[in-house]
Design a protein that fits this description.
487 residues; mainly beta; Immunoglobulin-like; Coagulation Factor XIII, Chain A, domain 1; 3 domains; seven-stranded mixed β-sheet; 42% strand
């Protein structure tokens, strides 16, 4: 009898765990994560753009997925996605950094709320060819979201507090001055956090250098504020400082001071060890971070559209991932029907360690056709990965399908919207509570509530059942009454 009760308890526990796994497994197979979940922006000013970053992650990395970005709420019209509303997550890629820009416009001071939504879907079979070589993600997204292949989604809550005050507030957090090559201009990055409501930059940067065992400063230079880039509000990123100092091979100490535009000292470093090594010692490396044109793909269209001889700006972003600053330029090959029609090059520019560089090429497509732009960066004898953009040149306006048609099969329409899932979640929680009560009552008393049909050796006198080998062993917990007939 004791062994039978123990086996029955184990059976109930295993059943409870199995039920939990069964209910939760569909929710995690295609789960989308987003971080941070809440973004609050204080002291925003009208007409001043603000860019914020967030990360999107996924559990299942077995295949390619396309992410669609959108915004909702009263402040949604202020939110744009500078890298496009569709982004590709390749096989094996578990996460992706994404950015959005809020442009408050000419609005009154106050609090505005919105949400940024990231939806993910697997690439449909008919869209695989579109993303080959990192090609037309927008076209692939249109096909994949229409089919709704295992959609999942997550949202960020965004609160924007707009003020009438102009606040200038920034600080230097760090630097990366460590090593350089001989006879190469010394460059380094200052990580500056602009927590104010307006764009700003340092007034000047002073750098002094002495030999490791020396006492006198042999090199001294001031980089004026005119040579420094403006720092957008609410950003925290490295800003390049390029000097004219060229040192011989050796070991040095450097001292850096940063001043604001009013002449106040904002940052005074300790001594910084600086090593100068022979030319070619440090590895050069870089990547093409993005390649795009100055028009976005309209909702429902498959690519940006221009008219013949309409000005086009081709924009590429270079990321320096090496150990030394590099001089690089953007090269774009223009193809029409697989035939190379033109070769374009930008102006060469210097990109410091861990820095990024923006490069533009102006162009005009001569005639109607579908063109493919293949772009890459060249530095030294090396070049980066190749990016690809397709462009339609036509005298006619692009054919735009309706938003409802384009979004057919989206999360909300196929019933996987988080709000639509609330009844399912509530039902699952109710089942969990019943199972917990079921197990707790049996573990305490040896009786099972409402379990008359679970297995043969349970005999019941409703509403309480008891394990037994014979019906004579049943002891009712609720008194019963019988009607006696009169003689």
């Amino acid at each position: 009898m004791v062994l039978q009760k123990i086996n029955s308890k184990i059976f109930v526990l295993v059943g409870f765990i199995a039920a939990m796994i069964f209910m939760l497994s569909p929710c995690t197979a295609q789960a989308t994560g987003i971080s941070p979940g809440i973004i609050v922006i204080n002291d925003a000013v009208a007409n001043v753009p603000i860019t914020k970053n967030f990360s999107v992650s996924r559990i299942n990395t077995a295949g390619d997925e396309i992410m669609r970005l959108s915004s909702r709420g009263e402040g949604s019209e202020m939110i744009t996605f500078p890298d496009g509303e569709y982004q590709l997550m390749k096989k094996g890629e578990g996460g992706k950094d994404v950015r959005f820009t809020i442009t408050p416009g000419n609005i009154a001071a106050g609090k505005y709320k919105a949400s940024v939504r990231a939806e993910q879907t697997q690439v449909s079979p008919e869209a695989v060819a579109d993303i080959a070589g990192g090609g037309d993600v927008a076209s692939a997204a249109k096909k994949s979201f229409a089919g709704a292949y295992n959609l999942s989604a997550a949202e960020i809550s965004v609160t924007l507090n707009v003020t009438n005050k102009v606040i200038e507030k920034w600080e230097v957090l760090d630097h990366d001055l460590k090593k350089a090559e001989e006879d190469t201009p010394i460059s380094f990055n200052l990580t500056i956090n602009n927590s104010g409501s307006v764009a700003t930059k340092p007034g000047k940067v002073d750098i002094k250098i002495r030999e490791e065992r020396g006492t006198e400063f042999l090199y001294n230079e001031t980089v004026p504020g005119e040579n420094l880039a403006m720092i957008a509000p609410f950003t925290n990123k490295p800003e390049s400082v390029l000097t004219n100092l060229k040192l011989k091979i050796g070991r040095y100490y450097a001292y850096v001071k940063v001043y604001d535009r009013a002449g106040n000292l904002k940052y005074d470093s300790d001594k910084i060890f600086l090593e100068i090594v022979p030319m070619g010692t440090l590895a050069q490396a870089g990547t093409l971070k993005s390649l795009k044109v100055d028009k976005l793909t309209p909702q429902g269209a498959d690519m940006p559209t221009y008219k013949p001889n309409e000005p086009v700006v081709i924009h590429g972003v270079f990321g320096n991932t090496g150990q030394v600053g590099v001089r690089t330029l953007l090269t774009v090959e223009v193809y029409k029907d697989a035939e190379k029609k033109d070769l374009l090059k930008s102006v060469e520019a210097f990109v410091p360690i861990a820095g990024t560089g923006d490069f533009d090429i102006d162009y005009k497509f001569p005639e109607e056709a579908i063109y493919t732009l293949k772009g890459y960066f060249s530095y030294g004898i090396s070049k980066t990965n190749i990016g690809e953009v397709k462009v339609r040149v036509s005298l006619k306006a692009p054919e735009i399908v309706s938003q409802k048609s384009a979004l057919k099969g989206s999360i909300s329409e196929i019933g996987i919207d988080p709000f639509a899932m609330l009844p399912i979640i509530a039902a699952a929680l109710l089942i969990i509570c019943i199972l917990l009560l079921f197990f707790y009552f049996y573990a305490k008393t040896g009786y099972v509530v409402g379990a008359a049909c679970l297995w043969p050796d349970i005999y019941c006198q409703w509403p309480v059942c008891k394990l037994s080998n014979s019906r004579q062993d049943i002891t009712p917990l609720i008194p019963t009454t019988t009607n006696q007939q009169k003689p």
